[in-house]
Amino acid sequence: MSTAPSPRATAAVERYYRRHAGIYDLTRWSFLFGRRGIIEALPADLHPASILEVGCGTGVNLVRLGRRFPTARITGLDASARMLGRAARRLARLDVRPRLLHRPYLRPEGPSGGFDLILFSYALSMFNPGRDDALDHALEDLAPRGLVAVVDFEHSASPLFRRWMRLNHVRMEGDLRPALQQRFRPLLADSRPAYAGLWRYLMFLGGRP
């Protein structure tokens, strides 16, 4: 059964990021841990020809991916026009310009042969609903020897904190890792604490089963 986000849910997230886009990079560094680390954790012998970042936001990871893989064809996908506008301004300084697509991840986006690397950085926890569909699309989009890379909120033992995060469209109920392991063969599945264990975040690398 499809769990694709409704137009109403998509519009709510668009409104949220319309308000937050201007302060996103100034504030999110303090709790979006592991964004640099997940790219550094990619195998040294990975040489992707095509890369997709789902939920690319303001383009921070696209810059890092462009620097590490300067010959790759990079696509950034996001549902927020305001966030993509900031990404476009940031990326204007790069010699290699990623392709930016303004839409939710509602269907596979892959080129012939699929993407060699698909990155979700603090995106899946905001697909409520839509996460499982996004993972199914990623499995279909992934090249035979490709990798999916995920860094995201995993769980908090505090019901109050989880409730507050839900007000910010974030789900962290501890079910992300099982959903990934059902679809991808794990190469890395590392759960790390943040702020003395107030929550945990997940770093995951996986290939086709």
Automatic annotation (TrEMBL):
The keyword Methyltransferase applies. Residues 51-146 form the Methyltransferase domain. Keywords: Methyltransferase, Transferase. InterPro entries: Methyltransf_25, SAM-dependent_MTases_sf. It comes from the Bacteria. GO terms for molecular function: methyltransferase activity. One of its GO terms (biological process) is methylation. Pfam families: Methyltransf_25 (PF13649). This is Class I SAM-dependent methyltransferase. It comes from Sediminicurvatus halobius.
